[in-house]
Amino acid sequence: MNRDLLRLQAYPFEKLNQLKAGISPPQEKSPIFLSMGEPKHAAPDFVLNALKNALTDVAFYPATLGLPALRQTMAAWLEKRFALPAGSIQPEKNILPVNGTREALFSFTQARVDREAASTGKKPWVIMPNPFYQIYEGAAFLAGATPYYMDSQGTQPDFDAIDALTWSQCQILFLCTPNNPTGSIIPLDTLKKLIQLAETHDFIIASDECYSEIYLDENLPPAGLLQACIALGNTAYSRCVVFHSLSKRSNLPGLRSGFVAGDAKVLSEFLLYRTYHGCAMPVHHQKASLTAWQDETHVIANRARYREKFEQFQTICGQTLPLQLPQGGFYFWAETPIDDIVFAQKLFAEENVTVLPGQYLSRYNRGRNPGQNHVRMALVASAEECAEAAQRITQFVERL
Predict the structure, then answer these.
(1) I need a surface site. Which of 13, 54, 73, 138 has the fewest CB within 10 A?
(2) What is the pTM assigned to this prediction?
(3) What is the CATH number of the domain that holds 118?
(4) pLDDT, tens digit, for every residue of 335-365?
(5) Are residues 118 and 190 in the same domain?
(6) Alpha carbon distance 23, 187 (integer Å)
(7) Of the candidates 186, 306, 295, 183, which has an alpha carbon nearest to the alpha carbon of residue 246?
(8) Spatial separation of the C-alpha atoms in residues 159 and 79, rounded to whole Å
(9) 336 is in which domain, residue-wise?
(10) Are 215 and 363 members of one domain?
(11) CA angle at 201 for the pair 138 and 262, rounded to the nearest 5°
């Protein structure tokens, strides 16, 4: 077996299940789950119809590179959404369909980490925010690299705390904007600074932007890494790749559909890896995905539903639990009055509401765990369930 498997920690939801084991919550209170970031809004009917109509395509092997029409649609969406120059995203070079961002983030790391660099004195670091999406860490371990954790300064990673020597040993810098779990957005100027660091120290920036289409201000969509490239005159998107998905944007987590875009040379090498990896997106999924990327009406409506739930939840719960509206994504990253693990366990035991302890999403680093005394609450349930959860949490905190 790969010895690096021993370096992996249990996934946050496995830890959560262990925390809840043996507890019998009050049966008169229906269970409400705010723990997992799985969208519960209805999937668009027109996408489901396209999927159904394309089912005969299961008779064909899909190409790893994907259908030309799908790549063209993805390229057009990127250019329009992030105000990129027309034609700057070449579908045959700068786009690669993937089976969701989770699969792609993991496999990209396997393809990009140079294990031999350690023997030449350049220790292979993979730098990531802390707290973070655990796939970044697991991918680094199984690629033979060492995670370097950037503790959040408030809700943003503290990029300035990283010295030049560490940057020089970096092979991949993971970003998540809007961030999971904090909901913070990395400003365009900061993205530009990071691209310049990547050029100076020769590392790849992998920006996880799967929450980019969920934000509170309809007139202020989050900036993206490729936007920052264009602002710097980096029209080849050198050393930069972004990851996008239909899971959150279009409420299609089970479709497992997304794409990677950016540096053509990097993507050509990743494509080579994927031809052996055997992870081509099924053709019927590709055709359904094409219809989803072409439509924005359902995305606007989706944002409006989250916006209403956030405002409602904060109105009910904000006086007893400090809540700051996130800039993007669908999580509240809330500070707890007691230890977050104890908070989550007692909340489940007394109110049958499940939230995720912040410590499960972060690592002890330099003597502290930046997720401690926080919980992540995903507002993915119905508006009625979210309002009920807010009422129960308010009552629970008032009893503490």
Answers:
(1) 13
(2) 0.95
(3) 3.40.640.10
(4) 999 999 999 999 999 999 999 999 999 999 8
(5) yes
(6) 43
(7) 295
(8) 28
(9) 3-42+298-399
(10) no
(11) 65
